[in-house]
């Protein structure tokens, strides 16, 4: 199993530009999560999906952030327009079932907005 | 003013010694707890989990202890190795399900 795959690994962009982060969950996993990690706030849950449907987006910072899951094997997190304070490592994770199965994380996308 | 990041507690141990990493939680409703390990440049990696109907669970070189009375979780690593150097997080789903909330983490440093 290849695990959760995220791309790109690093992204450097200028303020105001659109950024799209990509994630391929583990095949067969029903849940997909987007987390953000910063030194200031640690690991924060942004949004999660169940069977491609967004369940809880209460962690999404503001309207500049949006996430989609068009099918079971692909999800995107988009920031438009990006700001320097969005600089962080963004992780995607997937899990097999509800009720407390462990999350499996990708290796993240390090985003730097200048 | 100057921004300040999260202050990660740090635990330094000698190679071969046992490590104990602690975590306090506040939500009594949680029935599932997980420990993750995060190495530099990587995502958190699942180590071991425990449900609230247990007070101890053992894995390979790791043991998790759960004390629901004082809402305390600990991770014990036996014979700590250099490869164990990482940040360790406890996590729980506050309201059940898979929506995990992570603690701030503990940096484990293994000294040779």
Residue windows where pLDDT falls under 50 for at least 5 positions of chain B: none
Query: How many extended strands of chain A?
Result: 11
Unreliable residue runs of chain A:
none
Distance linking N and C termini of chain B: 39 Å
- By helix and strand content of chain A, what is the structural category? mainly beta
Helical content of chain B, roughly? under 10%
Biggest beta sheet attributes of chain A: 7 strands, mixed
Q: Most extensive interface, residues per chain?
A: A-B, 27 and 28 residues
N→C terminal distance of chain A: 36 Å
Query: What's the order of the H and E elements of chain B?
Result: EEEEEEEEEE
Structural class of chain B: mainly beta
Number of helical elements of chain A: 0
Name the average pLDDT of chain A.
93
Q: State the shape of chain A.
A: globular
User: Helix and strand string of chain A, N-terminal first?
Assistant: EEEEEEEEEEE
Oligomer: heterodimer
Shape of chain B: globular
The share of residues in extended strands of chain B comes to over 45%
What is the radius of gyration of chain A?
13 Å
Mean pLDDT of chain B: 89
Describe this structure in words.
- The complex is a heterodimer of chains A (114) and B (112).
- Helices cover 0% and strands 54% of the residues of chain A.
- Chain A has strands at 5-7, 10-13, 19-24, 31-38, 42-50, 53-56, 65-71, 74-79, 88-95, 104-105, 109-113.
- In chain A, a hairpin with a 3-residue loop joins strand 4 and strand 5 (42-50).
- Chain A starts with a strand and ends with a strand.
- Chain B is an all-beta fold.
- In chain B, 0% of the residues lie in helices and 49% in strands.
- Chain B has no helices and ten strands.
- Chain B has strands spanning 10-14, 19-24, 32-38, 45-51, 56-58, 62-67, 72-77, 86-92, 101-102, 106-111.
- At the A-B interface, strand 4, strand 5, strand 9 and strand 10 of A face strand 3, strand 4 and strand 9 of B.
